Amino acid sequence: MDESPHKPGLIAKQLTITTLFSGFFQAGILGFGGVLPVARRIIVDQRQWMTAEGFNDLFSLCQFLPGANIVNFAFAFGARNRGLAGAAAAIAGLLTAPLVIVLCISSLYHRFGAIHVVQHGLGGLAAAACGLVMGTAMKIAAPIFRGRRQMVVAGLAFGLVILAHFSLPLTMLLVLPLSIALAWRQ
Amino acid sequence: MTAKLLILAAMFGKLSLLAVGGVNSTVPEIAQQVVWVHHWTTAAQFSQLFALAQSAPGPNMLIVALIGAHVAGIAGGVVASLAMILPAGILVMAVSRLWDRFREQRWRRIVQAAILPITAGLVLAAGFVLVRAADTTVLFAIITIAATGLTFGTKLHPLWLLGAGAALGLVFA
After folding, report:
1. Which chain A residues are Cβ-neighbours of B58 within 8 angstroms?
2. Has residue A4 been placed in a domain?
3. pTM for the full model?
């Protein structure tokens, strides 16, 4: 497989706007409970747009920067291939189907959400979704909670938001410099 | 209507660049704004919209689309989504050209090491906010504890947990 010399990990292949759209459309509509594994399968294994290393590298940038990781990935991957039009195509592909589905869910929720029996199902669904977030938070926290620095920073972020009711911008303004200073000293 | 769209755009546009490690770290702030500042939903409704967004295919920023649609229909869903993804998306496109130059630098690793525990604290806060909103009965609390343990300890697909939670709610509540 030829690799483009200028774009590490990007397999030399001219991707059109239409293929970018269709690849990310597939990832979006199949991405139940997280798009990442599906996107990796499509981009690396099926369509071979990128090597596994290239995928991991670009994805690590998307995790490093703020925002939804896979949405960031669509922006960056689309732009690397076809500039702004490529980014727009990848994003449109990724989000069109999920947005249509979610908007349908929204109108169903408006119409039937208040019905007694539906409320029971939704209550159980919401309880399970809490568990997904809690379990994910514990997965993020488990490997980093060996150091005192990490525990202090995580506890502070949690406390400022939950106990002190600080807004997220204010919390970040206080915690991020402190966390960077602590990380710098290590 | 236009006023609501502007509020949505401003609110999610501001949160876009604060979503460290993903959208879930902004959930406490979204809940605060939606439930307590603007009174667009009750706490229970917010937790249900969040759960519906998790059940749909696609990235987990869909909670933003659902909130937008709940407040201002289809236009609201689209505006809220664009506001949430555009600032971060523009940043990632700009930085992606320079990534090769600073990926291995020391300061980059330090910033990453600094962000990780903040993400952990904020996602824990998101879980806490959702639990407080959703777990109004003993049954719901048990569902949450079970789903937490299974998410943490196994590789079970999230759809099984969401489906089981909804089924248990229907049967026993």
Report:
1. 28-29, 31, 35, 94-95, 97-99, 101-102
2. no
3. 0.92
Number of domains present in the structure of chain A: 2
Tens of pLDDT, residues A2-48? 444 445 566 667 899 999 999 999 999 999 988 999 999 999 999 99
In this structure, are A37 and A54 located in the same domain? yes
Which residues neighbour A123 within 8 Å (Cβ) at sequence distance 6 or greater? B44, B48, B134, B136, B137, B140, B169, B173
Q: Is residue A9 part of a domain?
A: no
Does residue A5 form part of some domain? no
Rounded to the nearest angstrom, the gap between the alpha carbon of residue B166 and the centroid of all alpha carbons in its chain is 20
Cα separation, B53 vs A49, whole angstroms: 29
For CA atoms A30, A31, A35, A38, give the dihedral sign: negative
Which of A112, A145, A160 corresponds to the end of one domain?
Answer: A112
Structural domain containing residue A137: 119-185
Amino acid at B62: L
**Contacting residues of B for A150, CB less than 8 Å apart:** 116-117, 120
CB contact under 8 A, B121 and A70: no
A92 with A171, same domain? no
